[in-house]
């Protein structure tokens, strides 16, 4: 005979119901660290967070990058649970999963020109739950939005039904302490989960590097799941220098520092058998998918989600046992796929369009001034353009120079400030830069100057299209050459071809008399500068009103040239182009 039970009281039934609500939130409620919509990982398989980098090439500047961080530096898990039993402080970043019916609320941004007012094609606003105003542990740091607390205060929200990721930085509800406060953030970005939507070059996101944050966090459900983790993790270092793909934004110009977007990869030879399986799962992802530099902060801090179940007594020593010397640097700007092939790879053709910046700089000048070059590109076409940039250096073969690639949307423009530092990661260098694209509708220019107080505006140097290069059988003249106690003239020559090229340079007086001549050899894709060109051509006296005549005797040779007449007192240059 089965055992009989007395019916439960109404109070007991109500208590059980409340417990069920805590364990299984209603479908219409926001859930902290709730189940993410599949398929996982977040974003398409070919997204930069999800691509396998185990066979990607290593960067030639690897040793210097690792040395800057510190080869004996250990890793640290920048995540955990509650910082105390009573206070709101937490370690790591919580994320919220909300239904598509979650009301959108307006958010004002400090950097509104680089922030998204809402999701693409949808009404403005972010689906921030009202609980985040006054309740703890919805924002990074743990404090309620209206508390006035400091810190980065990232807010990460996934709209599971519309498959959208909303992220904000420096999120606060103002005025402080008001239950009717309104939301404000430093910046915000929205990412559709089914697309590889990269921020425009120069734009930030909720992350300093312009990346999405949530797809790069170490999550508890993955670490203690049954499958390998299939994405990279975000990490920080103390200082950075520019950015490379997949990053889109810079927040530092420290010489020698790695750029945002730098990928580190745990060496395949690193034995992981000493670690427990959940930790080993994290480190195996570092071998396959690597780490992506996403923000300035403490060296080698790897970010993850807030979760009270993390055991930092296990995580901390395990992470610390991995040193920077255990890692390799993936080639800066490396991309697995998705970009069209370089249109100039097969050689000249109707789809190959090239421009040559004869000289760019990142060098120290008189009085400690830093001369730098900014590059501006406008895509005046009706479709997206892919840009390939190669630094050619000076007085050397430029064919093996470092390359970077970018996408530029139709009708948009981008300026790469401090080009040699931010794009190529060079601490001090000067030389030519080549731009290639399948799009003929690019408008390009550069500015070389000394920034800061007391600096000069510098000079705007155009990029020479391939059709504008000087070729055999033709001569070009640069007039108004002057060299005396008040002015000096420098001549820049850059080889636009992949074979060596000679350039004949002659100096003629106002009356047409030949004052000096010299044949200048240029390496393949090489450039050089004749400093004080009048003296370099063997003329010792003062010269004014003279002209340079340029040509190449090399069959098939093609080169670019310009001169700078520089005021000896102010260092202001004037650009003279060949005619």
Description:
The protein folds into four domains: 53-87 and 217-337, no CATH class; 94-214, no CATH class; 353-466, Hypothetical Protein Tm1070, Chain: A; 469-576, Sandwich (Hypothetical Protein Tm1070, Chain: A). The chain is 10% helix and 32% strand. The protein is built from eight helices and 32 strands. The longest helix is centred in the N-terminal third of the chain and has 14 residues, at 10-23. The protein is elongated and about 90 Å long. The protein starts with 9 loop residues before the first helix and ends with a strand.
Characteristic terms for this protein:
10% helix; single chain; 8 helices; nine-stranded antiparallel sheet; disordered N terminus; six-stranded mixed sheet; Hypothetical Protein Tm1070, Chain: A; 4 domains; 32 strands; 579 residues; mainly beta
Question: What's the helix and strand layout?
Answer:
Elements: H1 10-23, E1 31-32, H2 62-69, E2 76-78, E3 96-98, E4 107-109, H3 131-134, E5 155-159, E6 164-169, E7 172-174, E8 182-185, E9 187-192, H4 220-223, E10 233-237, E11 263-266, H5 277-288, E12 291-296, E13 301-303, H6 312-320, E14 327-329, E15 353-364, E16 370-379, E17 385-393, E18 403-408, E19 413-416, H7 419-422, E20 429-437, E21 442-449, E22 459-462, E23 464-465, E24 470-471, E25 476-483, E26 487-495, E27 501-508, E28 514-522, E29 527-530, H8 533-536, E30 543-551, E31 558-567, E32 573-576
Parallel strand pairs: 2-13, 3-5, 4-8, 10-12
Antiparallel strand pairs: 1-3, 5-6, 6-9, 7-8, 10-13, 11-12, 11-14, 15-16, 15-20, 15-23, 16-19, 16-21, 17-18, 17-20, 21-22, 24-31, 25-30, 26-29, 26-31, 27-28, 27-30, 31-32
